[in-house]
Amino acid sequence: SVLRRALDKIAEIKSLLEERRIAAKIAGIYSEAEPPRKTMRRGVLMTLLQQSAMTLPLWIGKPGEKPPPLCGAVPAAGDYVAKPGDKVAARVKALEGDEQWILAEVVSYSHAANKYEVDDIDEEGKERHTLSRRRIIPLPQWKTNPETDPEALFHKDQLVLALYPQTTCFYRALIHAPPQR
């Protein structure tokens, strides 16, 4: 359908922009339009994260087609490897020795070591972590439509990770009610 092609094109453009940003970050090259990023204020980071979540592409399949992995509540396949630039929940050791789940961005994955390198998305605590696959949960790459794909929604009383307000740290939570539309 026309809608599906348009959404695919939007996702492709967003992916290309993200690839360019990552390549520039790795190479240390910045264009005039995008100077090196300085540490941003917490409010700006929170706004950007909200915008990123709101602009996650909507998955629209053909009639009878099941939502793909990483669409809403549909988990990634067991052998899935997140790509550089993908957002993930990462379980890291905090300074006090406790463990916590943080919002992170994949830098690389080593198939030989079976480990990810991820950056803490919060620039105040900017750290690079090397973590095994079991300490990484890939985040959804598509939103699901509750009217056409209710099976891809988190259900009442399902355990999830949710972000503490105004932070990039996750906490365990239970779903009270799935979205209605």
UniProtKB/TrEMBL annotation:
In this chain the SGF29 C-terminal domain maps to 78-181
Tell me the first and last residues of the signal peptide: none
* PROSITE patterns given in the database record: SGF29_C
Instruction: Kindly give the CDD domains that the UniProt entry links to this protein.
Output: Tudor_SGF29_rpt1
InterPro entries membership: SGF29 (IPR037802), SGF29_tudor-like_dom (IPR010750), Tudor_SGF29_rpt1 (IPR047288)
Sorted alphabetically, the Gene Ontology cellular component annotations on this record are: SAGA complex
* Superkingdom of this protein's organism: Eukaryota
Protein name according to UniProt = SGF29 factor
Source species: Eulacestoma nigropectus
Recorded name of the encoding gene: Sgf29
